[in-house]
Amino acid sequence: MKKSNRTLALITSAVSALSVMAPAAPAQSFAAIDASKRLNINAIKNANIDLADSRYDFGSKDNFLKDGKCNYYDFLLIEKEINRIYAEKSFPNINLSCSSVSLSDAAQQAGLTTSMLDLTGDNNISPEDYCALLFALTENYETEYIGDEAALNIKKYKNTSDTEVVVPASLFDGDWGVILPVQKISSEAFSGCEDLEAVYLNDYRQPEWTDRYGFIMNADGEVKASTYLKICSNAFKDCHKLADIYFPQNIVMESGALNDTAFNWNKYNHFDEGGVDYYRDSNTSSPAILAYRLIDPESYSDTDLTFMAGTTSINDEIAYKHPFGESVENVIIPDSVKYIGFSAFRNCGKLAEFNGKEYSELDTAHQDQTKRFINAFDGTAFISKETQRLVDEIVADLNKEFTSSTSDEDKLRAVAKRITSRITYTDYTNSPDFVLYPDTLYNILDYSRLNSDSINSGLNTGYVVCGGFAKVTSLILDSIGIKNYSIGGTWCGGGHAFNIVYIKDNATGKYGWHIFDGTCFGAPSIKKADVDNNLTAADVRKAAANSRSYDGVIDFDGYADFSIGGNSAFKAFECSKNKQLTDENKIFVFKIDPNDRSRIFVHGFEFPGISRDEEGEKEVLFYFGDRYTVENELKIMKDPTFVYKMAEE
């Protein structure tokens, strides 16, 4: 689970990792502007740009050759041109007069002048100019902000008579005055576009601009793993003439995403090979190929899952819950693959090899590729073995420190210290938290943003939100013999995740359930000066671990509701066998007994078909203390009514 509006201190604790990735820019930059002064939104909205006016035709895709159209490619050209000008000036925190700057040779050869790029008409060159063009393009779409994702969902395209559409990979949010990536195209977003013949989908590329810490976000213009585009089912409903679709690199699709389209009916575009259903886009010179779904499990040979040469992306959950997923032991992924979707191979428990090799046998490039999309391998032997190795390293280190007299409280504080030294809390951020572009670590680093809650991501990549912290904590506590659960609930803010632990309270001498939160208390405050000193992420984490106070990580008095939901990825770890809940279809709502902390109230169940409200608030006492057994717990997971039977005994 994600926790919104985390303190910047938590995020900055590993920002120095960027110092080895990009050259530093001066501290003063647009990223330092106060939120209320980031852009002149009124100037952007009042530019009154008519997209049919030829003056806004700056070129075509990737060049200044005019094509008689004004679309997203024109925005990308002037965005890159203006950002280049600001980069040459070391990103000054001012607008630049048209007379003080010059355009690139390519732009000048195409006949462009600085005054032509002054779209707001203030005789200056500034980000407001390209934002004005993007705002005009945004007016063609009905969008919604995706909470906590720093991205937009296209709900509806308004120009239903168009025959060709270049779908922007980013749009301008006029409420916050920022540019956001497009992450999703909703069901029926293009319904009614009965004349539509061609659609160009595009990858969002983090631009060459400074982040909040003063580093260049993406000087090379690469497509980051943290950005992707999901096409929802029936997105192009009734678009029967739609025959040409051009894919981005990072694309995933829901079932039936291209229903009703001529593109879907074309056997060149939609075909199967070796038991995998593929979509190939309309670019005949270098097509993008999406491995869409697995089909008849009898089509596969032996225990290998092989993706065809030229595949560029693998769909979400492609093998998850598929019958063959229970058998596959080796997945063969060609180097052409640039994007692997969410939980692609989740819970393929026997999957132990990637291209015929265990993780430890892979070269650095393929290990890095695995880390970029590590959530795709949750619940597999392939990545769980590596995570277990890292857990074992921490446990071995802890055991050197522990003695027979080490209290449970001291053990928990030692665990929190080790985790702080290995992992950084990394969120996507909400709109008010960034300037012009999303610029927190998951947006900048080349990791899938869907890694943030992965049980394997914390120790392998070093970047997760609270859910990832809690799962790693459970693995370590399970290994050292402290009973615990990874929890998600309302305590410490909506949607937060943490752990509850069954330990001896030093003050009372009694065993009971208490709250243990490795992310919420005593977070380090890293100053920008630390970043400017070019410290590595490991340096920053180590310093934070050594300076952090751990007094607040255990809450001995908390009683608030929390829910325990199963996470099937725990099945892949021997250390957590029969210790963590793994049934993902049931969520149990608990409260620690205020009169006896060795007991917990079960007062609600949430799972498909039954909501907590329907179940009601009937409090039933369930003993996790003297009456706890793994056998009883497993019975409750299978039959929630068993808890009532226990209470009646």
Question: What does this entry show, briefly?
Answer:
This protein has about 650 residues and is α/β, with parallel strands linked by helices. It is about 25% helix and about 20% strand.
Tell me what you see in this structure.
The structure is a single chain. The chain has 649 residues and is α/β, with parallel strands linked by helices. Among the domains are: 30-209, no CATH class; 585-649, no CATH class. The protein is 24% helix and 18% strand. It contains 18 helices and 29 strands. The strands form 7 sheets. It has an 8-stranded antiparallel β-sheet with strand order 25-24-23-22-26-27-28-29. A hairpin with an 8-residue loop joins strand 13 (276-280) and strand 14. Helix 10 crosses helix 13. It is globular and about 80 Å long.
Write the layout of secondary structure elements.
Elements lengths: L7 H5 L28 H5 L26 H17 L7 E2 L7 H5 L4 H4 L6 E2 L1 H12 L2 E6 L4 E7 L6 E3 L3 E4 L4 E8 L12 E3 L28 E3 L12 E3 L4 E3 L8 H4 L4 E4 L2 E5 L8 E6 L9 E3 L6 E2 L15 E3 L6 E2 L12 E2 L9 H9 L8 H21 L6 H13 L3 E2 L15 H4 L12 H5 L1 E2 L1 H15 L3 E6 L6 E9 L6 E6 L11 H5 L4 H11 L6 E2 L6 E4 L21 E6 L7 E7 L5 H4 L4 E3 L7 H9 L3 H7 L1
Helix pairs in contact: 3-6, 9-13, 10-13, 10-15
